[in-house]
Amino acid sequence: MDSSESIHAERFFELGELIRQQASKIIDCWSERAKREQDSAEFAHRDELRNQLPVFLERVGAQLSSHGSVGEKQIDAAARNHGEERWRFGWKLNEVMRDYQLLRLTLLEYLDQQLDRALTLRETMAIGLYLDEAIEDAVVSYIACQEASLRESEMRVRGTFENAAVGIGHVSLDYCWLTANQRLCQLLGRSNDELMASEIWGSVDVDSRSNLKSELLQLAENRETHGQAEIRLIRSDAKTLWANCTVSLQQSSDGQALYYIVIVQDISKRRQLSDELRQAKAAAEEANRLKSEFVANVSHEIRTPMNAILGMTELALDEPLTPELRDYIATAHESANLLLSLVNDVLDFSRIEAGRLTLETIPFDLLDVVDETIKSFGVHAAEKGLELLADIQVGSPGASEAIGLVEGDPLRLRQVLTNLTSNAIKFTDQGEVIVRLRAQHHDAHTVTMQFSVVDTGIGISPEHRSRIFAPFTQADASTTRVFGGSGLGLAICNELVTQLGGTLDVESKVGGGSRFFFSLTLRKIPGSITPPNHESATHLLDGKRVLVVDDNSTSRRLLDELLRRGDVQVTLADSGEAAIHLLRAAAEAGTPFDIALVDALMPEMDGFSVCEAASEDPQVVGLTLLMISSADRSVFSQRANSIHVDGFLKKPVTRRRLLDAISSALGADNANAPDEVTKEASPVALNVLVVEDMSGNQKVVRAILRKRGHSVTLAKNGREAIERVMYDAFDVVLMDVQMPTVDGYQATMAIRQMDDADAASVPIIAMTAHAMRGDAERCLAAGMNAYISKPIDSKALIRLIEHWGNRAKQQTHVRATEAQTSETTMEPNNGDLNVITEGLAVSDFSAALARLDGNRDLLHEMSTFYREDMPALLQTIESASPDGDSNAVRRAAHSVKGLSAAFGADVVSALAFAIEQLAEKGRLDAIPPLFVRLKVAVQQLDAAIAASQSE
What we know:
By secondary structure, the protein is an alpha/beta fold. Helix content is 54%, strand content 15%. The longest helix is centred in the first third of the chain and has 50 residues, at 268-317.
């Protein structure tokens, strides 16, 4: 080696050693420069690079130290690692190169500062060479990592495509397959090559093509980003499968459509499960329908004999009986009522459970509903020695009861109040039960009322309060054993109140009684508020002094509140002795009492004794006595009749009934006086047809109606009912709906089609043991006028019968008067026969079927009646002689007319009507010519009926 090369070698060695020894300082200079020239946030990798630079500088220094002796290029590990790290951390290639360019400048600047001489060109080029090789290593490593990552990504995408659990394929814009994964080939049962040689439509069922094509067209027109359709695919083996097909459109960077991406998922099992679920749902609905029918039938089967049991025992209790027999029958009657209550609870709960409970919205008098509900429990409360009280405050003192009519469901509201009041009495052994009504809010259109039932009974513990509204639940098992009941009552009440728009709640403590309450908002009926009927009684009380005698403090307070309206002076007495003292003291002071309200049942000196003492005391004069009691008057009727009392009123007392009773006692004209102080007018005797297949029920209804003085005719099925209505005139028909042969619905529709106006319009009251949704609507749709459920409530039955019967009598009288004034005598001769039947139809079965709502079975039944009854009727008419029974002929002709009218046989009806008119005039001698024509017309009708039945 010459001296110059030796000098260069020494200098390179010096540079290499300097770099190796000062590596840490060089790195610090690089870091400081990087902070000045680069944003540290953008070069967060500096810590990783700093860790790698010592090794890198060591290699550069070693290469410089042995410059010229290295035979081949060695890849710098630090640079390679830095390139790989940069790739992993997501840095770009230009950032890798920038890092090393910064290191080049830093290294050269540092060396220039540390040496006492300037770097030669050869030294600078050698340092640059080694640095460039390091940069090249980093770039090569970076690119190698990038290519490896791209290959790995492509493999992942391809693996995902091929191994996807769903079928994936690409379809050209002209609907040819471009690619398909393995799953798609499996679903379609075709190889990839087979698919690539076909259009997509070859694998789609004809009925599904339009749905899929519609989705693809919307994608192509850029109306949707993706589409979806359930389609049926066809496999190569001709089997089909249901698939959910999702399609999207692949576009180029400039927005040009390239191809469709189709994803196919096999949903055959899901469709099968869906079909099975649909079938199961249909089966469940059918089972529910059958259950409802079963419940209705069971209801009928239970209620029908229950009607006879309750009716007969009630009638028996009205007869003179020995105490022992009365006890037997009363026990049976009470047990039957309990059984009926249980049946009603089960039926109501069944409706609720099936979601078939519906509410009606009709106008009703709220105060009447509350009054009638609580009044019905007076006797029951008295039998247990309880005070049943009504605390009704629904407005300001000047208009406390002027609510008028509201809209809602009075039946369901009454059911809730009945159940809560019944429970309160059942679980209370002593004390009182109070039914409260309060107006919480009202405006021009609505009123919000709070209903409460408060008792002093056994109470409910906190742990049981949360579950008493659950079905089949009472406070505890022992309660069920002691008090009985199904445990459904409160659950039903809770559901009813919820559907009415309120929330049923309870406050209670063990041994301290309970308070059940809820609020309802009801819509007012505009213009329904009228001056109360008791206003005259209110004026009659002005200036009066009233003495209230009752041992129950709550009852005294409520009566005081009811009376304190206007200029009334009320004095309270808590015993009979106190009452007599007050009466005498007032008389002696010259300020006698005008009215005394006396509780009948008090300890020591009862109300009867008070009334007797007051009547016999010469100082007490001009006193109006009103007896008030929880017990029914019949319990002590003999004693009540033996003393002077101006009026008798049952608890619970409402202001309306109290003032009406006072008005009646004071002699005012009051048409609305309560039942306790007025006598019911005797009803007009009615002719009633009772259609019932059960003999027990026949006896009950007949006994109830005959006791009211009505005439009763019995029919055991619908067919007999139709015949009875044809022959005889009835004021009202009581029709059972479920009977053999012809049921009540069919019989009613047949009666409504009769030609005779009186027969066709006779009031028909449905009588049924069914209690399911839609029964009332079905009865009315069949042409019935009203509806009553079994077991029959005798009072409700009498009200319906007499209402509709008297109404029918008035309408019949009007029709008879009109007919009498417009009637023209028909006395046809042979020349008139063609005129009678001119233009009339032999039959019209389409019209007849339309009148029966398409019921072919009913039309067939009517055809059977016709064929069975017509020969005897014609025989009666044919055998008539001039001096024969004209009434029999008239009835027969009337029946022929009614039977034929059902088939639209106008010719037969017209001829029969002409014969009926002649018979009514006694002109039997003029009938033969008409009868000849009638027989021909009947034969034609027979042929038409036979032809219709063969179709």
